[in-house]
Design brief:
The complex is a heterotrimer.
Chain A (H helix, E strand, L loop, with lengths): L23 H29 L4 H6 L10 H10 L4 H33 L5 H13 L2 H15 L5 H9 L2 H14 L2 H9 L4 H12 L1 H17 L2 H6 L8 H12 L6 H21 L1 H10 L4
Chain B lengths: L1 H24 L11 E7 L4 H11 L3 E7 L7 H11 L5 E5 L3 H6 L12 H6 L2 H6 L1 E2 L2 E2 L2 E2 L5 E6 H7 L7 H14 L7 E3 L3 H11 L4 E4 L2 E4 L4 H15 L4 E3 L4 H9 L4 E5 L2 H8 L7 E5 L16 E5 L6 H13 L1 H8 L14 H7 L10 H10 L11 H16 L5 H19 L3 E3 L1
Parallel strand pairs in B: 1-2, 1-3, 8-11, 10-15
Antiparallel strand pairs in B: 3-14, 4-5, 6-14, 7-12, 7-13, 9-10
Chain C lengths: L26 H39 E4 L9 E4 L3 H7 L2 H33 L6 H9 L6 H12 L5 H8 L12 H26 L3 H9 L4 H12 L1 H16 L3 H9 L9 H10 L4 H33 L1
Antiparallel strand pairs in C: 1-2
Helix pairs in contact in C: 1-13, 2-13, 3-7, 3-10, 4-7, 5-7, 5-11, 8-9, 10-13, 12-13
């Protein structure tokens, strides 16, 4: 599954070479044009979102996107946080709780397990790891309804935990952590620590975890994205609006928008604010991201 | 002094005895020293809060806690099903006629056959009660019954000399005349989300999509009368004589307001809805009876209408039923509901019609006695219709087919057949006895 | 006898062979400690594995085999009995379920070639050295991956909605009406959303694979006189064929779960019905048709199909890896 072993930081194994043959100006122009077009394709929806956030309901439907006649950005922001008693703020908080706290706790759990798989031997180890891999193969959408059925059976539906506990489960994180542990934490260090008389768990916390640092961030980022993106599970589990994450909340407002068009600008600006955290996280932590990608190859 | 004290003590004792005697004879559940019975009530109908407030005001034995829920199709039914599954459904809930058999199969509404007194039964329009009585058992109490009517822009009809149709043949010819006179106008719409409208039309023509005999469901959504109706509407769509759009959509409303659509076929309740959604149409609209296939043998179906049920979970079925009875038979209840806004819902209890008529602002329809019209039409409602075991599922499939047919892929009758076919898995997986024709 | 005793440890064995100073702890006592540590580290995850994965799957299988049974007309509620494969037969005979897979197949037919060729082309271009500001371009192209699925879907839905969309307005001024939400255009519109989200991500994967190519092979091609394009197509691509197939396979597996985008479109256009994809079918069965038997049977079927596909991919990849070594 891997094309390369885990490499920390950058992915450059080979600098892109000089243009070969008689490419000249035309190839260069064509290539750059294609890239520019692709970049435009990528960016224009985001640009639309930005511009549309400055318009109120009438302007959204009426005016040209580039006109700045009615600059309603602050007005929209105010409406966003006051609509329905500030439920948007609630949704934002919920998303942060589910995603950030969930990813953090989940990563701790996954990294611990991955480390254990890497450093210890025990009976049926590979069978258990096989089970972990099966978990990787099963997409979250397929698990959501069975989870709902169980939660419904024990009366836990429509609670914070109904979403929080399932998102902690990250078998891919375990797989990744096992790889990263073997790459970042050499066995000799472990031996030395044992010889020095440190307990196993002390070693883990004081030594291994520190060495796993970048790996931990990678696992954390992957899980953060997965949870922030998770739509089916909260949709199935939650019916109380106050427990909704952002994704579900905006979806609900959008369905109201067909009947009450005043929701359209709120969905637009709500979406804008929703993408900011992840983009910031991405741009600042992208090297961990890339290393995780390389380590886990094409997963 | 002592005499007074003795007298007071005697008086108090007598009073206490009287009170105990009274509370003992009033029966039911006022067990804990006169605390009122709490009923939970879920509804999506407008004006329900006012009705509940009125009930709580006029009596203190029962206190109703009302919760507004989304309309059935928007999640209200899912909410009810989930609550019933968890064992905490409300005491009283609102279910529309088509979905009632489905809920009865799921065991949500309580069997009211024994609890509903004959005196109340007599007050309800027989066709309405028929629709809530399944396999000999009554599962709900009708609130309103909505005969289908034809709403039209009389100013436009007058302007172009279009005759108001009394038969479906005339409807088609008027449609043609209108299109010729004003190419941008249409006499009505084929609703891509109008499975229940189509059901009403098939009902009128004598179709029987669902029958029960020998403890078996007999399903036939493409019987001869239905085929006639489907072919008729297919013709209208193919000839571009009607709009093709979803009812209650932005574009439908826009067409009504602009005069591009000058007619609308729906249940009687739509009169009030039109007043709310197109206030600019005041004085321009009129209501006519729905066109007939054969004027010598008139018949009619309904579109819309709700019922109240007492759920099996309810701990106070008698109080719940009393509350329901009051809501559907009391003029005060209807007045309270109408105080919240315009509604032309036609009561299932005919004695309430004068109340509704009095509260209605007749200005919009230029003084037309719309309730008189509704009353005449209601008499024509055919009693032979039954709703099916899984209407929610059937409606979804049929409307999917209608949307495609409207876009040119498939036919109206094809959509109905597909709808029937796609509901079978629901029925088979529940173990129901089903045959299809 | 060893003289160094680690704090907090119980020495099980007395009398050990003397060792050189510094290496005194016998293995056996350490192993017990190790076992304890191992269990502690594994416990939380294993608990989750059981609670969040094994139990729900087992419960779903159970529910699919036991469902509500009604006799005759069915009024008055049913009883829960063992119904065996009845729910599975009902699901497999349900045209809506089968058509969902048909939609997924069509979706893959359009999406997979486009995303693979697009991402590959971009990666090759970035690798060719012809691009200025390569790092910036990479970063920009990758940004959509950071946008949560539902938000991407909302943005594009609004760009497809007449009245809101500047694109539609632009074309309308030239008297051309485009309908992004019509019967035949709705699936390509959904593909476009997935493409927008997935292009940068897959591009990075291909780029990483290209970076790992040995320099000698490229040099050899250059010496042989191959131009940039020929080198790209005939030399680079075949070597990273493994990555290409992997991306295809994972796109396929992702497609099986398609839910978010069509769920949103379902609100906007009747051309996407509520059972458009298998995941939507499952949701509809549970919450609108109120039929847990159908929903759990369909979940199990989807689970089996997805696992089978994933397993096939992993086996195939493992085999290639082994043969490549």
């Amino acid at each position: 599954m891997t094309t390369t072993t885990a490499t920390p930081a950058s992915t450059s194994g080979r600098r892109p070479g000089r243009p070969l043959g008689n490419s000249g100006l035309t190839s260069r122009a064509v290539a750059n044009t294609v890239i520019v077009l692709a970049a435009l394709y990528t960016l224009l929806p985001g640009l639309w979102l930005l511009l549309a956030s400055t318009k109120n309901a009438d302007a959204l439907f009426g005016s040209d996107i580039l006109s700045f006649g009615d600059f309603s950005l602050w007005h929209n922001l105010r409406d966003l946080f006051t609509m329905e008693d500030g439920v948007y703020g609630r949704w934002y908080l919920n998303s942060l709780l589910y995603a950030v706290v969930g990813a953090f706790v989940g990563s701790l759990i996954s990294v611990a397990a991955g480390y254990a798989f890497d450093k210890y031997e025990f009976p049926h180890k590979e069978k258990l790891f096989g089970l972990v891999l099966t978990g990787v193969m099963v997409p979250p959408t397929v698990l959501a309804l069975p989870l709902y059925l169980v939660a419904s059976g024990i009366g836990l539906v429509n609670t914070f935990w109904a979403v929080f506990i399932p998102v902690l489960f990250n078998p891919f994180g375990v797989y990744l952590a096992r790889l990263l542990s073997s790459g970042y934490v050499p066995n000799e260090v472990l031996e030395a620590s044992r010889v020095d008389g440190a307990g196993e768990l002390q070693t883990y916390i004081r030594v291994s975890l520190r060495m796993l640092g970048p790996g931990f961030v990678t696992v954390f980022l992957f899980q953060l994205t997965a949870i922030w993106n998770n739509f089916f599970l909260p949709m199935v589990m939650l019916s109380d609006q106050h427990l909704y994450p952002l994704s579900l909340g905006l979806y609900t407002w959008n369905s109201s928008a067909t009947v009450s068009p005043e929701y359209y600008p709120l969905v637009v600006i709500g979406s804008l604010l929703a993408v900011v955290p992840l983009i910031v996280a991405f741009l600042t932590l992208q090297r961990y991201w890339k290393s995780g990608l390389t380590a886990g190859s094409v997963k | 002094m002592r005499h007074t004290r003795n007298a007071v003590a005697a008086l108090l004792t007598i009073l206490a005895m009287l009170l105990t005697a009274c509370s003992a004879s009033s029966g039911s559940d006022i067990a804990e020293a006169g605390r009122p019975v709490h009923l939970t009530f879920w509804s999506a109908l407008r004006g329900t809060q006012e009705v509940v407030d009125e009930y709580n005001r006029i009596q203190h034995k029962v206190r109703v806690d009302f919760q507004q829920v989304p309309s059935g199709a928007q999640g209200g039914y899912a909410k009810l099903s989930n609550a019933a599954r968890a064992g905490n459904a409300p005491d009283v809930a609102t279910i529309e006629y088509p979905q009632l058999p489905g809920f009865a199969i799921d065991g949500v509404p309580r069997d009211l056959t024994e609890l509903l007194p004959q005196s109340v039964r007599r007050k309800i329009l027989p066709q309405a009660l028929d629709l809530t009585t399944l396999d000999g058992h009554t599962y709900a109490v009708p609130v309103d019954i909505e005969p289908m009517m034809f709403f039209y822009r009389k100013d436009v009809f007058r302007k172009y000399g279009i005759p108001v149709p009394t038969t479906w043949a005339e409807f088609a010819s008027s449609a043609r005349k209108l299109k010729k006179a004003q190419p941008r106008a249409r006499i009505g719409s084929f609703f891509t989300n109008g499975a229940l409208h189509m059901a009403g039309f098939s009902w009128q023509a004598g179709g029987q999509w669902y029958q029960t005999s020998d403890d078996t469901w007999r399903i036939s959504m493409a019987d001869a009368p239905t085929r006639k109706v489907a072919a008729y509407w297919q013709h209208l769509v193919d000839q571009d004589l009607v709009r093709v759009e979803p009812v209650d959509s932005q574009q439908w409303r826009a067409h009504l307001q602009s005069g591009e659509t000058v007619g609308y076929t729906a249940g009687a309740w739509a009169a009030g809805s039109l007043m709310n959604s197109t206030p600019g149409g005041k004085g321009k609209w009129a209501i006519a009876p729905l066109p007939q296939w054969d004027p010598a043998k008139p018949s009619l179906g309904t579109q819309g209408g709700s019922t109240f049920v007492v759920t099996k979970d309810s701990g106070h079925p008698k109080e719940a039923l009393d509350f329901i009875t009051w809501m559907v038979t009391s003029p005060d209840a209807l007045r309270a509901k109408l105080s919240s806004g315009v509604s032309s819902a036609y009561p299932a209890v005919p004695s309430l019609v004068p109340v509704a008529r009095k509260e209605m602002d007749t200005g919009y329809y230029s003084g037309q006695d719309i309730f008189g019209l509704f009353q005449e039409s209601a008499k024509l409602i055919s009693p032979r219709w039954k709703w099916g075991p899984r209407m929610t599922s059937t409606i979804t499939s049929v409307e999917d087919g209608f949307a495609k047919a409207g876009a040119g892929s498939g036919t109206v009758i094809g959509a109905l057949r597909e709808g029937e076919r796609r509901t079978l898995p629901d029925l088979k997986s529940l173990g129901l006895s089903v045959t299809t024709n | 006898m060893s003289t160094v005793i680690s704090p907090g440890k119980t020495r099980k064995r007395a009398g050990t062979t003397p060792r050189t100073a510094g290496r005194t702890r016998p293995r056996r006592a350490g192993r017990r400690q190790q076992t304890l540590a191992c269990v502690t580290l594994l416990a939380p995850f294993t608990a989750l594995l059981v609670a969040v994965f094994l139990v729900p799957v087992g419960y779903a299988i159970g529910l699919s085999l036991f469902s509500e049974d009604h006799k005759g007309l069915g009024f008055g509620g049913g009883t829960t009995v063992f119904t065996g494969l009845r729910s599975y037969l009902a699901v497999l005979n349900d045209p809506s379920f089968v058509s969902g897979f048909g939609v997924i197949a069509l979706y893959c037919l359009i999406f997979v070639p486009v995303v693979v060729i697009g991402a590959l082309a971009l990666a090759l271009l970035l690798d060719s050295g012809l691009i200025r500001l390569r790092r910036t371009a990479q970063m920009l192209l990758y940004v959509p991956h950071a946008v949560p699925g539902i938000i991407a879907a909302v943005i594009w839905l609004y760009l497809y909605t007449p009245g809101l969309s500047p694109v539609i307005r632009l074309f309308a001024q030239a008297d051309i009406t485009i309908d992004f939400l019509g019967l035949h255009s709705v699936l390509p519109s959904i593909v476009n959303i997935a493409l927008w989200s997935g292009l940068g991500y897959n591009m990075v994967i291909f780029y990483a694979a290209l970076q790992a190519l040995p320099r000698e092979v490229i040099e050899a091609a250059r010496i042989d006189g191959a131009g940039g394009l020929r080198t790209a197509l005939l030399v680079k691509v075949p070597i990273i064929k493994g990555s290409v197939v992997m991306v295809c396979m994972f796109a396929l597996i992702g497609a099986l779960q398609l839910f978010t985008e069509p769920m949103l479109m379902n609100q906007a256009t009747p051309m996407v019905n509520s059972r458009f994809t298998p995941s939507m079918y499952i949701y509809d069965a549970a919450f609108r048709r109120n039929n847990y038997g159908l929903a759990s049977a369909a979940s199990v079927i989807l689970l089996i199909v997805t696992c089978a596909l994933s397993y096939a991919v992993t086996r195939w990849a493992g085999r290639r890896e082994r043969s490549a070594r």
